[in-house]
């Protein structure tokens, strides 16, 4: 029985994520804080893989995009120019009886805990930016904001980057970093949080080329999602109708994924015109014009913006990877997996297995190495040598605790593609057993051939 995405519950996924060290509730020992999450040893590696894959695709493997790391707190005038101070708001309502609070467009379908229907207040606007103060004195002159997006740092530094990067329009500036939004009602596990990480590209283009570049980036981004393990059948495009577009946008497409709680956005790809650069030119008094040496004309570049959420992508990869199935026990080895109805006991000779089927490039741990027995120094020494060699190239896991079968199951639950066991035959012919996570098949491979054998899968991208 393989878990259908529609049958996967967020409770089951959250339980595995905590048990195996992917995601923890922030400040859990103090009762937690809503909308904030900590990533454990495996979650850190998963997010790092996502960011490194994005950076390779967007910056490292291209000649026309450079990187930036702007500060989280910037001059408050930036947020006035961008429209966030006045316009970055959600309508909020409260229930007079239970004191619950929701966005006005996301009211609960359940009844009030105090009985009967909810009694809502009139909607009022709520600014989503976190406000802080810079310096030792707290007054109106020291007000600043934690950035609600990384994009404005790129726009504010556009001319500086242009001067030093030896680029010509069209070209892009990419950034990965933290952003903060004081969400009224964080929900769906890590999907909507108050602190999150963004991967944003601002691709600056000549006016009049917006449509072709927007279409190009939609196609590129969909290909990237498939490359990290999200299949085409679970990805969708939501094309904004004209009446839903922001006043400055000529086109916008959301990349959507089929989560267990519904089809939701992973990334927005918008053709934003020259709105942002023009606003910063107006508010700062500094020119944001670009001189085109070919046409001998000046213009404020237009921009196409693919903006993705690292945390949402990580959650999508966790959902996609999670599988429960019945597999044969050692006594029934060689038998195929048996389907069964959810909640039913396994057939005779079978047991439950939870496995995270990450694409190899996304898997937090790529390979695990075991000595067959921990009380045999010659096995441990040989296995340690194999482990030390492999971990110089890939994230690797060393495990000597428990029976081999249990060690396999632990690695299945964290999504490790390959497990390598050093046994007594290794001491005779320098071969080891390599086990495939998905098929559970094992084969003997010479230690000298291990790097090439693993690289064929782990380095394929």
Description of the molecule:
With 461 residues, the protein is an alpha+beta fold. The chain folds into 2 domains: 10-76 and 145-319, BirA Bifunctional Protein, domain 2, CATH 3.30.930; 365-458, Anticodon-binding domain (Rossmann fold, 3-Layer(aba) Sandwich), CATH 3.40.50. The chain is 30% helix and 28% strand. The protein has 13 helices and 23 strands. It has helices at residues 10-20, 41-60, 76-82, 84-87, 151-156, 158-164, 210-227, 275-284, 310-321, 377-391, 404-414, 424-429, 450-458, and strands at 23-25, 37-39, 65-67, 89-94, 101-103, 124-127, 130-133, 143-146, 171-180, 195-205, 235-239, 251-259, 262-273, 290-292, 297-299, 302-309, 322-328, 350-356, 367-371, 396-398, 418-422, 431-436, 442-446. The strands form 7 sheets. It has a 7-stranded mixed beta sheet with strand order 3-9-10-16-13-12-11. Strands 20-19-21-22-23 form a 5-stranded mixed beta sheet, sandwiched between helices. Strands 5-4-6 form a 3-stranded antiparallel beta sheet. Helix 2 (41-60) packs across helix 9.
């Amino acid at each position: 029985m393989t878990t259908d995405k529609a049958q996967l519950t967020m409770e089951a996924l959250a339980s595995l994520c905590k048990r195996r060290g992917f995601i923890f509730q922030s400040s859990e020992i103090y009762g937690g804080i809503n909308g904030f999450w900590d990533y454990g040893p495996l979650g850190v590696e998963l997010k790092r893989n996502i960011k490194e894959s994005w950076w390779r695709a967007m910056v490292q493997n291209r000649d026309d995009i450079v990187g930036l790391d702007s500060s989280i707190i910037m001059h408050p005038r930036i947020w006035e120019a961008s429209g966030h101070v006045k316009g970055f708001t959600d309508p909020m309502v409260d229930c007079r009886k239970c004191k619950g609070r929701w966005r006005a467009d996301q009211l609960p379908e359940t009844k009030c805990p105090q009985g009967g229907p909810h009694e809502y207040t009139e909607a009022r606007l709520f600014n989503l930016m976190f406000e802080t103060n810079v310096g030792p004195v707290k007054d109106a002159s020291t007000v600043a904001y934690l950035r609600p997006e990384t994009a404005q740092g790129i726009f504010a530094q556009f001319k500086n980057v242009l001067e030093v990067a030896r680029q010509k329009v069209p070209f892009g500036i990419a950034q990965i970093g933290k952003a903060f939004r004081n969400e009224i009602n964080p929900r769906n596990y890590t999907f909507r949080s108050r602190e999150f990480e963004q991967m944003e590209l601002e691709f600056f283009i000549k006016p009049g080329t917006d449509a072709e570049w927007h279409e190009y980036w939609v196609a590129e981004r969909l290909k990237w999602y498939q490359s990290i393990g999200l299949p085409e059948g679970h990805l969708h495009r939501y094309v904004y109708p004209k009446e839903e577009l922001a006043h400055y946008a000529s086109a916008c497409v959301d990349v959507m994924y089929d989560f267990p709680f519904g089809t939701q956005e992973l990334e927005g790809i918008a053709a934003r015109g020259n709105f942002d650069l023009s606003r910063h030119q107006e508010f700062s008094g500094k020119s944001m014009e670009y001189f085109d040496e070919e046409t001998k004309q000046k213009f404020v570049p237009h921009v196409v913006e693919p903006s993705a959420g690292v945390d949402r992508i990580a959650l999508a990869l966790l959902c996609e990877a999670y599988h429960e199935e019945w597999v044969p026990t050692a006594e029934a080895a060689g038998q195929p997996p048996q389907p069964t109805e959810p909640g039913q006991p396994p057939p005779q000779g079978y047991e439950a297995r939870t496995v995270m089927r990450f694409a190899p490039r996304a898997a937090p741990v790529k390979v695990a190495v075991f000595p067959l027995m921990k009380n045999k120094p010659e096995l441990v020494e040989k296995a340690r040598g194999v482990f030390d060699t492999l971990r110089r190239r890939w994230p690797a896991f060393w495990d000597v605790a428990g029976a081999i079968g249990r060690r396999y199951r632990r690695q299945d639950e964290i999504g490790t593609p390959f497990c390598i066991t050093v046994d007594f035959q290794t001491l005779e012919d320098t071969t080891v057993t390599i086990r495939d996570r998905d098929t559970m098949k094992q084969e003997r491979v010479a230690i000298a051939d291990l790097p090439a054998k693993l690289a064929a899968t782990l380095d394929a991208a």
